[in-house]
Amino acid sequence: MEQCSEIGFGAMPIVLIISFFLGAVTTVQTAYQLVSPLIPKTTISMIVRDTIMLELSPTVVCVVLAGVVGSKIASELGNMRVSEQIDAYEIMGINTKGYLIMPRVMGALVVIPALIILSMFLALLGGRIAGTMANILSAESYDIGLRQNFKPFNVYFSLIKTYTFAFLISSVSAYFGYYVKGGALEIGRASTTAVIVSCILILLADYLLAALLL
Q1: Are 176 and 74 in contact (CB under 8 A)?
Q2: How many Cα atoms within 13 Å fall on the side-chain side of residue 2?
């Protein structure tokens, strides 16, 4: 629960801000491209809904979380390794992988999907507000478009992606932090490497899941 609190509340402000403006920008840009009078206004919110659920909220927010959460996990474990705290735990007979890594992985698997669900809601809300303030479409038309041709599998697919990304972020970051060698300079390099590798694996897993499940 401590890791859930640290990961969740630590990353919540940036997730809230990014999600709201992602939805707003997506709505404005979608409306900019759909200029034909033959296309109903409700199509805008349909495209925004599917884009946010399938790609923007799970992938973009998880890439941001890889930088926020991943660097935090890697630096914490790296500092414990360099300061010989992990060695002290092992001398006392404590399973350091189960004691230090597992709570962080489990915390990420619990909290990150909740953050992504909140991100989807705020992105759709941001799109609704931006659409009405810019006179792109009315709130009623936006809500109608959100309900049209809704596929519940899109939600399940985004959650599958989210759990996969959460495991990648936490496990990769914990690996690079746990096995760091050297001093403070190596801790910084391990944190940077953990973020880079996590982002690459997230994008690779995003493509593989889309190819397999869609």
Answers
A1: yes
A2: 4
Chain centre distance of CA 121 = 14
pTM of the model: 0.88
Amino acid, res. 37? P
Is 199:63 a contact under the CB 8 Å cutoff?
yes
**Measured distance CA(10)–CA(70) in Å, rounded:** 12
Tens digit of pLDDT at every position of the chain (214 positions): 888 888 888 888 899 999 999 999 999 998 888 877 778 888 888 999 999 999 889 999 999 999 999 999 999 999 998 888 888 988 998 888 888 999 999 999 999 999 999 999 999 999 999 989 988 888 898 889 888 888 889 999 999 999 999 999 999 999 999 998 888 788 889 999 999 999 999 999 999 999 998 8
